[in-house]
Design brief:
502 residues, alpha+beta, Alpha-Beta Plaits, six-stranded mixed beta sheet, 21 strands
């Protein structure tokens, strides 16, 4: 790689700084120069980044200390997302220990389910746990899958599950974050500068093009920035987008702040109503409330009222934005690379999509001036990976049995998703996809939570005797109970982080 190779990263807020810092950290030693063009922030004080567990690994690469991150942002950990259906117009019950009002659900609601960030059960001999659980349930077992999951069981008991050697020997325990967006972006900006990123600010950018190639960016006021590769972290540069509108019913999203909980919950909650859904994402300064809906079924004023009712909280600082989900038709064209996609807000995949694209870009980073082969590899892998994340989100809408006009319209289902649903229903297996970035447990939680019940199981597991399986199940349940009781409450754990360091 030539020492003169320059990467220009354009965008705003956390996506800009994550990408710029990661590129500088990974490539700076090889002589690559990274410059960031910072556009005006699109964040409001009420915004929170709700993240998946994979972000922790990126933080580690950037040498971001977790304790310092949580202290600087007022953030918290989250063990997953709980999905419930509430009857419109009723005051809901909140997380354990912070109850207000009474739950009132529709006459035949879809049962709630928890998408926990961890695995369930341990291997039995050479086999995975899950097919044994499917078989046992067909023979009368009445123990939920969550009871075998350290993460899910801890969440249900209002405790964190912090991985250690004992839990690692049993199964995967992960957590994500709820990070107030403005202080998080500020911390990432400092990390990018620390890693050698040169920062330029601009109100807007115009790409000076020669065919598909960008020669430079016009930043206004006589500023012109030339480079070899231009990276767009959020629509700063022109790109053709492939619409995902047919997969998602929501075209409007509201974010607002409610009071912080007296006892900080360890998971987020998504509450389905007849005209949309409302998510509560707790952090220490406040509770971020996100409400997504279709303008065909509710006005902005009605949506704010629905969010207030569904959350059970007094809301302030409401901001309403338009949703237009989709991905770049070709993420890399010429010397311009687009990271991530415009996701629906359910599940909070924005930063994960950016991270997936960023990791792929580092894998395919050009070794010289001509990079057609790297571009083709990136486009193939990235489009498949982003479409897979889209399918996970769209499955929530396609499979949900919630009542109300928002949920009743047919949703577009991709052939890959249709195949995945059919295979899981047939024998509890997950379709193998090369560009998969979600763990199997996330797909299982989603499918089971929406009533996709496996009708059979792989016959190879029948070699284990019922007595052996029962003994293993009892051992696992005892281990989970024992480990959960050892875990701290989030408030106590965060208080220890905030204590002066001796």
């Amino acid at each position: 790689m030539s020492a003169a190779f320059t990467v220009i990263v354009a965008g705003r807020d956390a996506p800009l700084w994550l990408a710029a810092a990661a590129l500088a950290r990974a490539l700076g030693a090889s002589g690559v120069r990274v410059e960031a063009v910072e556009l005006p922030s699109a964040l409001a004080p009420v915004d929170v980044y709700a993240t998946f567990p994979a972000l922790e690994a990126l933080h580690a690469q950037l040498r971001i200390d977790e304790a310092g991150l949580l202290r600087a942002t007022g953030g918290s950990l989250t063990l997953g997302q709980n999905f419930v259906e509430l009857e419109a117009g009723q005051s809901p019950e909140l997380h354990p220990g912070v109850r207000r009002g009474t739950v009132r659900v529709s006459p035949q609601p879809q049962p709630p389910f928890l998408h926990a960030y961890g695995s369930a059960g341990a291997r039995i001999g050479e086999d995975e746990f899950f097919p044994h659980w499917v078989k046992a349930r067909a023979h009368g077992l009445n123990v939920p899958l969550d009871d075998f999951s350290l993460t899910a069981a801890a969440a249900r008991h209002g405790r964190l599950m912090l991985p250690d050697d004992q839990s690692a020997g049993y199964g995967r325990c992960d957590y994500g974050y709820h990070l107030p967006a403005i202080p998080y972006s500020r911390l990432l900006r400092e990390a990018a500068i620390h890693n050698g990123v040169t920062v330029h600010t601009a109100d807007r950018v115009i790409a000076e093009r020669q065919g598909e190639t960008i020669a430079a960016l016009d930043l206004g006021e006589g500023q012109r920035l030339a480079g070899d590769l231009f990276v767009d972290t959020g629509g700063a540069l022109d790109a053709d987008f492939l619409s995902w509108r047919g997969h998602f019913p929501a075209d409007r999203v509201l974010t607002a702040a409610g009071p912080a909980f007296a006892s900080l919950p360890v998971y987020a909650e998504n509450r389905a109503g007849p005209t949309g859904w409302t998510a509560l994402q707790p952090s220490r300064p406040a509770t971020c409330v996100t409400h997504a809906w279709s303008s065909a079924h509710a006005s902005d004023e009605e949506a704010l009222a629905a969010a207030t009712t569904a959350s059970g909280l007094p809301l302030t600082g409401a901001v309403i934005r338009t949703l237009d989900p989709g991905r770049p038709a070709q993420p890399w064209t010429g010397n311009q690379v687009m990271l991530g996609a415009r996701f629906d807000p359910v599940h909070g995949l924005d930063l994960l999509g950016l991270q997936v694209s960023l990791v792929q870009l580092l894998a395919d980073f050009p070794a010289g001036a001509g990079f057609a082969a790297e571009r083709d590899a990136y486009n193939h892998a990235t489009t498949e990976a982003l479409d897979r994340l889209r399918d996970f989100q769209s499955a929530h809408y396609a499979l949900a049995r919630y009542a109300g006009p928002f949920w009743e319209g047919a949703r577009e289902v991709s052939p890959d998703l249709a195949h995945a649903i059919a295979l899981f229903r047939a024998r509890g297996e997950l379709a193998p996809f090369e560009e998969e970035n979600l763990p199997p447990d996330s797909w299982r939680a989603l499918f089971l939570g929406h009533g996709v019940e496996p009708e059979s199981w792989p016959p190879a597991i029948d070699r284990a005797s019922p007595e052996e399986v029962k003994a293993q199940f009892r051992r696992m349940l005892g281990f989970v109970r024992e480990q959960v009781l050892r875990q701290p409450m989030q408030d106590a754990w965060l208080a220890r982080l905030a204590a002066p360091q001796s």
